[in-house]
Design brief:
Bound molecules: nicotinamide-adenine-dinucleotide
Distance between the termini: 62 Å
Number of strands: 12
CATH class of one domain: Alpha Beta
Strand order of the largest sheet: 3-2-1-4-5-6-10
CATH superfamily of one domain: NAD(P)-binding Rossmann-like Domain
Shape: globular
CATH architecture of one domain: 3-Layer(aba) Sandwich
Number of helices: 11
Strand content: 15-25%
Structural class: alpha/beta
Order of helices and strands: EHEEHEHHEHEEHEEHEEHEHHH
């Protein structure tokens, strides 16, 4: 069994590759793993340090937008799991071009190369953000796509491309859509590691708007088990939701992090809301649960273990660029 993991030097892809190489997925203990990663600012070979000596790992620096490289690399693989993407919403607001390149064109180039190489099984990893925002209830897999950020729009484009390749070309590709992930090795621009690393340095943490935006949270290990289940049992052209058991407003999340880090609210700086900030996401993952999936890591313990990991691994995150808080929120009606 040979599995190609694109984006395998990023947060979630590296967790998946490390778990595969550690024999964490029954039946795949002997799998050879090729990681293909462009090593953007978010890709970090240190994320694979634990498994870098494994004879079953091949690391290739390269881009999913490169058809010639893919034509050389893909033949002989039994499966491709695509985690490669530009992933930070705020960066997509500052500039969307790279998001379209990697998340739409990159997916199309990868699918095309998979088709030409006769790859028997593909999973394309996506996000709940493609649906937009939902005030109450939850989305099932056939909910209409209504993305609001350039990140989400680009991910939706990649998803549609995957569905098109399944329907038009009969490519055996499934899509997973997951809620917000947390865990070790997450780049410290995302909210949990941003807050935890800033608090570790005694720096203020920024809270967007009124802090009442709601997100589902899942430990990265549960997400990756869901991806593996879809790889093994998913149907071509089908979408599968992967959810955790925790829904929190950003204020509730902030309170949990402050509490776990022994900090108080006076270190929180309210900042002007992100433009187009979706109010609430919520996935119905009963389809995957009917296939045997259930998250295993409860949020309080998972958050504590994650905070402990950042405390013990300052050498991993300190060299990485961490955004400071944007300017504080102006009182309503203020002109300066
Ligand atoms: P990440 O930013 O930590 O990692 C992305 C990786 O992809 C990096 O290693 C980067 O170098 C690589 N990459 C980017 N563009 C590439 C390209 N063109 N070719 C090859 N490699 C490229 O992201 P993540 O949080 O690990 O997310 C992985 C996937 O999971 C993404 O597709 C994302 O949309 C999806 N997802 C993430 C979350 C979350 O909460 N982080 C939730 C749901 C879905």
């Amino acid at each position: 069994m040979r599995v190609l993991v694109t984006g395998g030097a990023g947060f979630i892809g590296s967790h998946y590759a490390r778990t595969l190489l550690a024999g964490g997925y029954p039946g795949y203990e002997d799998a050879d793993v090729t990681v293909l990663d462009a090593l953007t600012y978010a890709g970090n070979p240190a994320n694979l340090a634990q498994v870098s000596a494994s004879p079953r790992l091949t690391f290739v620096t390269g881009n999913i937008c490169d058809p010639r490289l893919l034509a050389e690399l893909l033949p002989g693989h039994d499966a491709v799991v695509n985690f490669a993407a530009e992933t930070h919403v705020d960066r997509s607001i500052a500039g969307a071009a790279e998001f379209v390149t990697s998340n739409v064109t990159g997916v199309q180039v990868l699918l095309d190369a998979c088709m030409r190489a006769g790859i028997p099984r593909i999973v394309h990893v996506s996000t709940d953000e493609v649906y937009g925002s939902i005030a109450a209830g939850s989305w099932s897999e056939d909910a209409p796509l209504s993305p609001n950020s350039p990140y989400a729009a680009a991910k939706a484009g990649g998803d549609l491309m995957a569905l098109a390749y399944a329907r038009t070309h009969g490519l055996d590709v499934s899509i997973t859509r997951c809620c917000n992930n947390y865990g070790p090795y997450q780049y410290p621009e995302k909210v949990i590691p941003l807050f935890v690393t800033r608090l570790a340095d005694g720096d203020p943490v920024p809270l967007y708007g009124d802090g009442l935006n709601v997100r589902g949270w899942i430990h990265v290990d549960d997400h990756c088990r869901g991806v593996q289940l879809v790889l093994e049992k998913g149907k071509p052209g089908a979408v599968y939701h992967i959810n955790g058991d925790t829904e929190l407003t950003n204020r509730e999340l902030t309170a949990a992090i402050l509490d776990a880090c022994g900090a108080t609210w006076d270190i929180v700086v309210p900042v002007t809301d992100r433009p187009g900030h979706d109010r609430r996401y919520c996935l119905d993952d009963s389809l995957l649960r009917s296939m045997g999936y259930a998250p295993r890591i409860a949020f309080p313990g998972g958050l504590k273990a994650t905070i402990d990991w950042y405390a013990a691994n300052r050498g991993w995150w300190e060299p990485l660029q961490r955004p400071g808080p944007p300017p504080p929120l102006r009182p309503a009606g203020a002109t300066r």
